Amino acid sequence: MTPILRSDLTVLAIPAFKDNYLWLIHDGVNAAVVDPGDAGPVLAALAANNLALTAILLTHHHADHIGGVQQLLEHASVPVFGPRNDGISTVTHPLAEGDHIRLRGLELALRVLDVPGHTLGHIAYVRETPGAHWVFCGDTMFAGGCGRVFEGTPAQMAASLGKLAALPGDTKVFCAHEYTVANLRFAQAVEPGNAELSKRVEVEAEKRARNEPTVPSTIALEKATNPFLRYGEPEIVGSLVREGKLAAGAAPIEAFAALREWKNTF
Ligand code: ZN
Ligand code: FE
Hints:
Distance between the termini: 58 Å
Structural class: alpha/beta
Radius of gyration: 19 Å
Helix content: 25-40%
Mean pLDDT: 96
Strand order of the largest sheet: 1-2-3-4-5-6
Number of helices: 9
Low-confidence stretches: none
Bound molecules: zinc ion, fe (iii) ion
Number of strands: 14
Order of helices and strands: EEEHEHHEEEEEEEEHEHHEHHH
Shape: globular
Strand content: 15-25%
């Protein structure tokens, strides 16, 4: 018997502020929004696509990710999923690693990962539906880079990125900012011999020239080109040592910390 499939889910990128993406997941009728830093563009997208908001998902407490929650709740009384440990007062369904959620009105099941580092309570949402692997990772992994380590330690951030990197290669990475071109400029400085990376630099620059998002990327592409997943690569370690940012023979986590530090001032 052929199963009757509900309409596929679509993910819309809603640009906000200077370089944020708010993600709107919908089935043509109902919608969930991830990290609504601003309500205005979300309400506009809901109206333009004739969608009803049924859930809000949050990854971490920064204002550019939660700033629109209050106003959206005035528009629609919906559950607010978010990290248990990140101090967000509007969260009605607190989550941590291992939790599984199903969204009201949408054929969408998500698993929660703890990904501390950018903030201490930061979580990510993983969709494991065969043929539609997704991760909403906020400011933890970016296309070609990673978030700043504001609250956690470099070791925590590296472990969190490792969890994301362990997802299937075809997992689409829905991160929260369009930082890709600048990230890849740094990536090329530290790993100029990476041919996949050189190819990616051209592809992403062309997308930006056409004013298209470079996000989502995939876990496979990130593993091939993102220096923050590749800090054990001899060429990257060599660049760090040559620039005087790392002692020869240092532990891999020292290389990660030095890389993050270098990117902060690049
Ligand atoms: Zn943030
Ligand atoms: Fe952010």
